[in-house]
């Protein structure tokens, strides 16, 4: 990379309804604030334009999807151009009738849309019925080339998989970015909530350590009621963060507040760290063949 430092920002927001235009504008206001503070790269959280609709299996929710290109990409493309930044967004993509993806889209200053990533790992758990809505991604783990470097963009559930982070890093990603929507079931105990959040932060910081790259995570916040009677809804736990290439937390948001984070990353540190901890040099690639199997019987 040409620049030694990179100012990276993220937006942590709550979503109150499915008024996409209002939600886009609210996000744009915060992106603008970050750009005015010098941010060159800004990321929004997963599915930031609507409520997290995957709490129920409802075919009406497919009406929330956007085409690419479409109204959403036009709005954020114009915003990135206007602010002269690289912008990472997230949307529910309608690829064709009956074919939908959970997709991150990257815009680069006046170049417009320069790439996208379709979420590869799709969960299916109570309150997170994503397999009903999203077809697994088919674009692989390929960083998006931008004016600020190669962005290893992944989405939410992908963040639990070291294979995804590793493959992005092996393809030259300068940093890993995770738009996210994760929260607690309010029936869980306080101890269980603490364990869940700790695991979530730890696994992502470990991706920074194992690959020697910064990690940027934007999670949503706020409570979103379930449309299903008797379900407890989701309390999104916020706590978005930015970590350096040794997993050190450089900035972290609160649990309940809408807020922005802005960090100036030293992009040369990754090279320095890799020289001290040469994990890629010492990988035993001759012995890893079974990683492509579901299980070792």
From TrEMBL:
Residue ranges of domain CN hydrolase in the record: 6-267
Any one GO molecular-function label of the UniProt entry: N-carbamoyl-D-amino acid hydrolase activity
GO biological process: putrescine biosynthetic process from arginine
InterPro entries for this protein: Aliph_Amidase/BUP, C-N_Hydrolase, C-N_Hydrolase_sf
Keywords annotated in UniProt: Hydrolase
Record-linked Pfam families: CN_hydrolase
Leading EC class: hydrolase
Documented EC number(s): 3.5.1.77
UniProt keyword Protein transport present: no
Gene3D superfamilies for the chain: Carbon-nitrogen hydrolase
Keyword Amino-acid biosynthesis: no
Name this protein carries in UniProt: N-carbamoyl-D-amino acid hydrolase
The species this protein was found in: Parendozoicomonas haliclonae
């Amino acid at each position: 990379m040409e620049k030694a430092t990179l100012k990276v920002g993220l937006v942590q927001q709550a979503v109150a309804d499915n008024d996409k235009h209002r939600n886009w504008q609210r996000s744009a206001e915060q992106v603008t604030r970050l750009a005015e503070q010098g941010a060159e790269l800004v990321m929004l959280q997963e599915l930031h334009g609507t409520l997290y609709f995957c709490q129920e299996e409802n075919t009406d929710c497919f009406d929330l999807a956007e085409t690419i290109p479409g109204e959403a990409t036009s709005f954020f493309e114009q915003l990135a151009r206007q602010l002269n930044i690289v912008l990472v967004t997230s949307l529910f993509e309608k690829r064709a009738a009956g074919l939908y993806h959970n997709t991150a889209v990257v815009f680069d200053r006046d170049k417009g849309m320069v790439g996208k990533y379709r979420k590869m790992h799709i969960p299916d758990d109570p309150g997170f019925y994503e397999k009903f809505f999203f077809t697994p991604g088919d674009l692989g783990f390929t960083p998006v080339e931008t004016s600020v470097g190669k962005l290893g963009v992944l989405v939410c559930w992908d963040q639990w998989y070291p294979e995804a982070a590793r493959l992005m890093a092996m393809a030259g990603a300068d940093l890993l970015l995770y738009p996210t929507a994760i929260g607690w079931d309010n029936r869980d105990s306080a101890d269980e909530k603490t364990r869940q959040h700790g695991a979530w932060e730890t696994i992502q910081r470990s991706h920074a350590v194992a690959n020697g790259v910064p990690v940027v995570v934007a999670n949503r916040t706020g409570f979103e009621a379930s449309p299903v009677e008797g379900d407890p809804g989701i309390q999104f736990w916020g706590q978005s963060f930015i970590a350096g290439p040794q997993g050190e937390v450089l900035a972290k948001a609160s649990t309940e507040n809408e807020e922005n984070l802005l960090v100036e990353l030293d992009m040369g540190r990754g090279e320095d760290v890799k020289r001290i901890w040469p994990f890629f040099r010492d990988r035993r690639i001759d012995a890893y063949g079974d990683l492509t199997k579901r299980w070792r019987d």
